[in-house]
Amino acid sequence: MLIQISLRSPNGQSRVQIEDDATLKELVELIKAKTELSNFSLKYGYPLKSLDISPSLQDASIKDLKLRGETIVVAPVDTAPPVPALQPASAEPEPKPFKPKGIEPDETSLEWPERGGHIVTAFGGAIGLENPSKTLRNQVADYILNHPNEYNKAILGEEPQRYTTRMRQMDTWGGAIELSILSDIYNLEISSLDVKSLRVDRFGEGKSNRVIILYSGIHYDRIAFCMDLSYPVEVDVTRWATDDDEVLDKARQLAQRLQNMHYYTDTTDFVIKCEVCNWIGQGTREAARHERETGHGQFGEMQITD
């Protein structure tokens, strides 16, 4: 007897039919052909639960799994390690932690009906590393020291040893050099989309896959594709083929929405307030000086109205 199963994947929604006495292996092969994905995990039900497709279990009958009428979420599994998120470039230590303007969660997503989901900003917890900032800094520093001809004093603006020592510290931020290095380490194009200008800067052009990051002037968020806003972050898609211009256009639309809400910060002249003593200053240089003088490290941006 034929049973129908709905699929939700980054390529959109689809439906497959399969005999109920077929094996799980046959279903997996059918999903591969339908979605054009070779490595993936499968989840179904509500709340979502994993469907174990380990080779040792693939002789199980579809009938025994009771998948009739189910919707299966097909989440690509990337064998490459995730790319840590970066902080924006700064020549001197920034006040930490810094709290930017608040944006409600539903304002950081944009429906994408053509692909059956949403384009969203993916925050720190979605990147899959236990200590992403420390991992990033060590990777960048080691890469610089291992490529002395490429990253010398003329490029870095200071001796590599001094630069990397500073980079390993938690109060120093990275920028274009670090994005370029991460592109090489992970063999990915990194497209940085600036919320204020909507400009896209590409690092590692010519590679086959890309990640997209959203730069707000204070920090970078990763762009992800989410098939349903209620799904866990591990089924989000954060890598795309570099010839997929649609995802870049959709990311720019999301950036435009955030720009309209003024979700960006010009760090040279924005007005900030110390949340410890209510001191008010302008720009990150004044905030850094205030922190050095007082030891206060909690800052937030002030909304200025006419």
From TrEMBL:
Occurrences of domain OTU (ranges): 133-192
SUPFAM superfamilies: Cysteine proteinases
One GO cellular component, as annotated: cytosol
Domain of life the protein comes from: Eukaryota
Protein name: Ubiquitin thioesterase OTU
The protein's role, per its UniProt record: Hydrolase that can remove conjugated ubiquitin from proteins and may therefore play an important regulatory role at the level of protein turnover by preventing degradation.
Record's subcellular location: Cytoplasm
Pfam families noted in UniProt: OTU (PF02338), OTU1_UBXL (PF21403), zf-C2H2_OTU1_C (PF24560)
EC number of this enzyme: 3.4.19.12
Catalytic activity: Thiol-dependent hydrolysis of ester, thioester, amide, peptide and isopeptide bonds formed by the C-terminal Gly of ubiquitin (a 76-residue protein attached to proteins as an intracellular targeting signal)
Keyword Magnesium applies: no
GO terms under biological process: endoplasmic reticulum unfolded protein response; ERAD pathway; protein deubiquitination
GO molecular function: cysteine-type deubiquitinase activity
Biased composition (Basic and acidic residues): 93-104
Region of interest called Disordered, as start-end residue ranges on this chain: 83-107
Domain OTU1-like C-terminal C2H2-type zinc finger: 269-301
Residue stretches making up the OTU1 Ubl domain: 7-51
Gene3D superfamilies: 3.90.70.80, Phosphatidylinositol 3-kinase Catalytic Subunit, Chain A, domain 1 (3.10.20.90)
InterPro entries: OTU1_Ubl, OTU_dom, Papain-like_cys_pep_sf, Znf-C2H2_OTU1-like_C
Keywords: Cytoplasm, Hydrolase, Metal-binding, Protease, Thiol protease, Ubl conjugation pathway, Zinc, Zinc-finger
